[in-house]
Structure formats: structure tokens, C-alpha cells
């Protein structure tokens, strides 16, 4: 049996404890990966007309929060750029909107959902640019 220093033992058990508390254990990752299998991922990035306006950012976030009530959305995440700063990281957007749909058909229904159309009507004046990345499971 390999011997492990006290420091290595404490470090490894501490990491496992933290990961378990966050739901990031190996079984959880496998379960979460399985839950995303064959889902339709819709990721939207917004650049505001007034990028320094906290008021405009909050209006957009509030609009997205109302939009989460659309029936075909399985999961949603509203984000802002993280503090990470590496050459490959795009941080010029102000808000991101990540959605998980059961399939492409549900995403299509979402596009014409009255809640989505109302969001566009109420919030489109806030952004100058929107970029959408849609993805499905690689085969």
C-alpha cells in the first residue's frame, strides 16, 4: 500500500469534501452529463447599447428572469462575464443567457412563445448586438 503524507491526505480529502458539498463528485458529473445528453443548448450573449449602464443591465436581467417562465425551457442560467482573464476568453459582452431545451422542437416553440416575443418587444432597445450559439450532442 502506498503511503501518503499527512498534507497530501488532508489536501485530497478536503478537495473531495468541497466537491461533494458542491455536488461536483464523479457520480454527480456523470449524472449531469447524462441529463444533458441529446438536449438542445441555446446560449445567447448580449452587448448593451450603454455597456456601462447598471440600470440597463438590470432591466435586461429582469426581462430574462421573466422569460424563464416560458414552458419549454428545461433549465436557464443568466450570467455576466467572470473575472477570469486569459487571451482566449471573450469578456466584452454584458449578459449571457444559457438555456437547455428537451429538443430542437421545444426551442422552436420557445422562439414564438408570447413570453419570448414580449421580452424582445420590451428589452430589444437595450442591446446593440446579440450573438447566439446553438448546439446539440456530438455523435
Automatic annotation (TrEMBL):
PROSITE patterns: S_R_A_B_BARREL. It comes from the Bacteria. Pfam families: Dabb. Residues 40-135 form the Stress-response A/B barrel domain. Coiled coil: none annotated. This is Dabb family protein. It comes from Flavihumibacter fluminis.
